[in-house]
Amino acid sequence: MLELIDISLDRPFALAPLHEQIEAGQLLGLIGPNGAGKSTLLSLISGYLQPAQGEVRLLGQPLQAYRPQQLARARALVTQQVESAFDWPVREFIRLGQAHAGEPLAGIIETLDIGHLLERGVLSLSGGEMQRVTIARAINQLAIDPLRLEDDRPACLLLLDEPTSALDIGQQQNLMRLLRRLARSPRIAVVCVLHDLNLAAQYCDRLWLLERGRLRASGAPAEVLSADTIAQVFAAQVSVVHNPAQGVRIELAL
After folding, report:
1. 126 — alpha (psi -120 to 50), left (phi > 0) or beta?
2. DSSP label at 201?
3. Mean per-residue pLDDT over the chain, rounded
4. Parallel, antiparallel or unpaired: strands 27-31 and 206-211
């Protein structure tokens, strides 16, 4: 779905040349310590930031070849911080950028449990409520109905930067289950920056571990998340538990 062809960046953050692919039907987690380049890489993938060298191709076309309306139908980005200068009603805020007519897709409202927020203004929302509403807007922009994932729908890419940061544990679980369900569609790829290594291990199909602007490791969570690697990259002492039924679990050492 997405090809990163020797992309690199000098400013504002140094990113070493990267040659990778992101496949549809997968949930890819971007992990790494603070300042590793995760958000920068996500901005490059989305097209909001241009690489100094190399090229990003989405569905076989360079991102620069897309008209803005075309790109908006094929990729959506949820950034870390979303601010609004206007007190939009939540219903109208979610509709911003949608190409389909009518109301926001009901399956999105139901799955993210935001139906009770639709008539409120966005400036009245808590951080967690605003995060869920912003995620709903991105999914609605791509016209994805989580309750009706059709195999013949147009292919698309959903990008999220720390989408669980303001959510309580129940909402984190609900969101990650939703992202994993979306990524099971053969026409959808989901890329998610995560700081919680246990969430990344539990829900992601693949991980890219970044360190100082370089791709340190990539692969399945069990391949990437070793105690030695975590100690070297994060300077953290942990135990990594492998369970055939539950996958990898990270436990902090006392």
Report:
1. beta
2. H
3. 92
4. parallel
184-217 core/surface letters (b: 16 or more CB in 10 A; e: else): ebebbbbbbbbebbebbbbbbbbbbbbbebebbb
CA–CA separation, 173 and 66 (whole Å): 34
Instruction: Categorize the per-residue pLDDT at 12 as very low, low, confident or very high, splitting at 50, 70 and 90.
Output: low
As given in the structure block, the two tokens for residue 161 are 């930067």
CATH architecture of the domain with range 2-252: 3-Layer(aba) Sandwich (3.40)
pTM: 0.94
Task: Look at residue 99 in the predicted model and tell me its pLDDT.
Answer: 79
How many Cα atoms sit within 13 Å of 22 on the Cβ side?
A: 30
- Residue 28 near residue 206 (C-beta atoms within 8 A): yes
Is there a contact between 78 and 159 (Cβ–Cβ < 8 Å)? yes
Task: Kindly list the domain boundaries of the chain, sorted by start residue.
Answer: 2-252
